[in-house]
Give the backbone structure.
Amino acid sequence: MAGYDAAAQSLERATTRFSNEYSRSDLSDDERSTIRADYLAVSSRYDAVLQRYAREALDGNTYLYEQSKGEESLQEALKEEAQHRASQRAIDMYDPARNLPARQHDEQMVRAGDELFARIDAARIAAYRLHEPENRNSRSPASSLA
């Protein structure tokens, strides 16, 4: 806002000078044209600053609007998910066997994932033990290049 304040003060000074001095009878045409040119230049700079601040304000408002719409969409999605889960719980309480196959499948997939991660961890530990210095019988040519 400091740029806007400076431009407004410059415009006020130029306007005062233009209104007080431009119509004086003792000024030559060159002096009048200089005063007028100064006023127009300051006025143009003020308009440019004003337009820039207006664009920035509009951009800020657009950003805030889009962000608020995004938050509204998120809140709506959370509300819909909560309603869906509540209805699923009500159905499960009314008829527990209805979603039983899906729940059993989910549990099987979780167990399969746990088993896979356990095998990965075991392989990582075995590879680490294999590459420990005390478990190497001889130096490999690849390690001597390093």
